């Protein structure tokens, strides 16, 4: 049985000890497109170590930064085909500014598994602390596994957020590079969906797609730069739902609306008639 919710839900995925350096942060920022204006002082804060600030979304990739194999989708009670998997949601809550280098301990578990009929949704949670137990950040993510539903589990909550109303306070266009996915895979995600055309075809795409987490980081950076004057320390939480794909080389249209706690945002693919890419995006600020 590919999915056994009785075994999967609550399963401890173990503890991972990891470390990172400013070089990892610099590579991550460059993989998001930072430095496109190399003489811009705000951009230099992302790409020069003597003034380096850390975009909070780096925390999502930091535990697996040195991964050199495609990510497995085999957990207790779960064994599914990688080609059927898409990223569903992602959020990170940071408990303070991320250091440019350091050590961390990640404790992960399967928080829930939902049966959507034609698909399964697998929710993971991770708590990252220092070696002495001080909190650094927490993450929650879900993956959407096509064709893996029907195992008799709970359908899970139906908590879709309504679309923002009124005029946005921000609308910007952000290009991506044709080689963006090839750069971003150096941050740890070697899923061939993002590099191998034959594998992408097995997943139903006519060419490799950009990593969802790359788009996630690009949008967070755009919001920080345009709404928070580049101050990464003001980010408390950044979360999104992956509503569609972006192909490397396409441009994003990012819109944002003010809320009581920060901002709501969307991202669409300009090159495909503003097809949804990210929605239900929430930036909570300090």
Describe it for me?
Helix content is 18%, strand content 35%. A hairpin with a 3-residue loop joins strand 10 and strand 11 (262-269). The model has no long low-confidence stretch (mean pLDDT 93). The strands form 2 sheets. The chain has a 10-stranded antiparallel beta sheet. It has a two-stranded antiparallel sheet with strand order 2-3. The chain has 7 helices and 12 strands. It has 286 residues and is of the alpha+beta class.
Looking at this protein, list some descriptive labels:
ten-stranded antiparallel β-sheet, two-stranded antiparallel sheet
What's the short story on this structure?
This protein is of the alpha+beta class. It has helices spanning 5-8, 22-31, 41-47, 58-61, 180-184, 197-202, 212-227, and strands spanning 12-20, 74-75, 78-79, 85-94, 102-115, 119-129, 135-146, 170-175, 235-242, 251-258, 262-269, 275-285.
């Amino acid at each position: 049985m590919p999915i056994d919710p009785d075994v999967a839900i609550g399963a401890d995925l173990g503890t991972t000890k990891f470390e990172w350096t400013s070089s990892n942060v610099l590579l991550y920022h460059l993989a998001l497109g930072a430095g496109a204006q190399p003489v811009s002082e705000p951009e230099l804060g992302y790409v020069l170590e003597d003034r380096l600030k850390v975009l909070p979304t780096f925390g999502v990739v930091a535990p697996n930064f040195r991964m050199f194999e495609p990510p497995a989708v085999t957990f207790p009670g779960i064994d599914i085909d990688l080609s059927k998997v898409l990223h569903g949601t992602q959020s990170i809550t940071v408990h303070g500014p991320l250091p440019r280098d350091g050590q961390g301990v990640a404790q992960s578990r399967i928080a829930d598994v939902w049966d959507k009929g034609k698909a399964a949704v697998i929710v993971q949670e991770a708590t990252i602390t220092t070696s002495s137990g001080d909190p650094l950040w927490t993450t929650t993510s879900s993956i959407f596994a096509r064709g893996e539903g029907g195992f008799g589990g709970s359908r899970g909550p139906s908590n879709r957020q309504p679309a923002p109303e009124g005029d946005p306070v921000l609308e910007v266009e952000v290009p991506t590079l044709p080689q963006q996915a090839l750069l971003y895979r150096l941050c740890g995600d070697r899923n061939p969906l993002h590099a191998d055309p034959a594998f992408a075809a097995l997943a139903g795409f006519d060419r490799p797609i950009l990593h969802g987490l790359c788009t996630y980081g690009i949008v967070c950076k755009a919001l920080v730069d345009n709404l928070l004057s580049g101050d990464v320390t003001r980010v408390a939480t950044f979360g999104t739902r992956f509503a569609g794909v972006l192909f490397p080389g396409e441009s994003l249209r990012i819109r944002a609306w003010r809320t009581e706690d920060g901002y709501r945002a969307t991202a669409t693919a300009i090159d495909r008639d503003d097809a949804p890419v990210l929605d239900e995006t929430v930036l909570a600020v300090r």
